[in-house]
Amino acid sequence: MKPNIFDIATKELNQDAFLTWLLQYADQKHQLSNPKLNDCGKTFVTQLIKKQIVTFAEEINKVEAGRQWENIDVWAEVNDKYLIVIEDKTSSSHHSNQLARYKENAEKWCKENNYEIPICIYLKTGNESQSSLGHIKKQGFEIFSRLDFINLLDHFKDIDNDIFTDFYERLIRIEKSNNEFENKLIKNWNGNDWQGFFQFLEKEINIVNWHYVNNPSGGFWNAILNWDYWNIYPAYIQLEEGKLCFKISTDPDELEMPEDLTRGEIRNQLHKLILNQAKKFGFEHIRRPDRFGNGNYMTVCIVDRENWLGADNQTIDKETIIKILTDYLNFLRKIISEPKKDSI
After folding, report:
1. Are residues 97 and 225 in the same domain?
2. How many other C-beta atoms can be found within 10 angstroms of the C-beta atom of residue 25?
3. Alpha carbon of residue 109 to chain centroid
4. Which among 167, 220, 248, 277 is least buried, having the fewest CB atoms inside 10 angstroms?
5. How many domains does the chain have?
């Protein structure tokens, strides 16, 4: 495989540069010097605007684009009428109230310059959970995804330009690696495979969220399958890559702890309830953790990877896994919703 500049220059700033470069090519003055890139740039601009104005059908004539205006990654003025602001992300996600601030600044500028309402775009070439993307949309940003970009560039893949080709081919490889989990031995899974798997689960069982947990022991990809309540305590199932964990939250931001109970006592009661009921319902693979924690979020029982996902030298059976996870979810919801003599 030939060297690819975007495999070497992987930071978001370099992707910002490509976006700005392609947007600048949308200006009519480049129609004669490079008609294919001009056409691609115009199509890109049109698709961005149509994310927010679905009926948009104007011809693109004038485009000015740049980077880092009011901390916004990429901006473009189109036809002296539209302002596009792009929050560009590869693997990272949004933070704090940055999107609301960017939208407010863009709206103020548009009002002062007699432009239409700004086109606010969250462009993501990596992966992000549907829960997180839903939060972004609530802040007034539309999503332009990796697949959106691939579908756009695929129509212009005959463009003879190394910058264009390198960016396009890198997106194709990222998308391919995202789907390799289906045919890869489980023991060879990496972060890309877990992300692809969690995206599959989102479509099948409507999970709450997934993301990367960075911790001193090296971190892991996790997915929260549900968020139900046992009395006042959130009780849920979390996939921590290989382990399926039954967990409880005693986070003071979510509940007020009783004065007569410690975290350890609450954890032990739910542990006892799950194990006792597991025997009655025939869930023989649910077991005690190797050790108990005593933090805000505690694992009370686990199921080892080979008993829900598959063994090291296997590939996954997606239908079987969905059934197993659904069964565990239904089991947990049933036992925490019914009063028991050994519950709180």
Report:
1. no
2. 25
3. 30
4. 220
5. 2
DSSP class per residue in 97-129? THHHHHHHHHHHHHHHTTPPSPEEEEEESS---
Query: Rounded to 10 degrees, what is the CA torsion of 333, 336, 339, 344?
Result: -170
pLDDT score of 96 = 66
Residue 151 near residue 38 (C-beta atoms within 8 A) = no
Q: How far apart are CA 82 and CA 60, in angstroms?
A: 11
Strand partners, 210: 223
Q: What is the reported pLDDT for 343? A: 46
In a domain, 344, yes or no: no
Output the CA–CA distances (angstroms, integers) from residue 71 to 68, 105, 112, 245, 318, in the order listed: 5, 10, 19, 40, 43
Based on the fold, state whether residues 153 and 74 are members of the same structural domain. yes
DSSP state string for 42-103: HHHHHHHHHTT-TT--PPP--EEEEEEETTEEEEEEETTTEEEEEEEESS----TTHHHHHH
pLDDT tens track for 135-147 = 999 999 999 999 9
Q: Are residues 112 and 211 in the same domain?
A: no
Is residue 127 located within the same domain as residue 208?
A: no
Answer with the one of 156, 178, 200 that is the final residue of a domain.
178
Domain contains 45: yes
Beta bridge partners of residue 328, listed in sequence order: none
Domain of residue 303: give its range.
Answer: 183-337
329 close to 237: Cβ distance less than 8 angstroms: yes
Distance of CA 55 to the CA centre of its chain: 28
Looking at 147, 178, 209, the residue that finishes a domain is 178
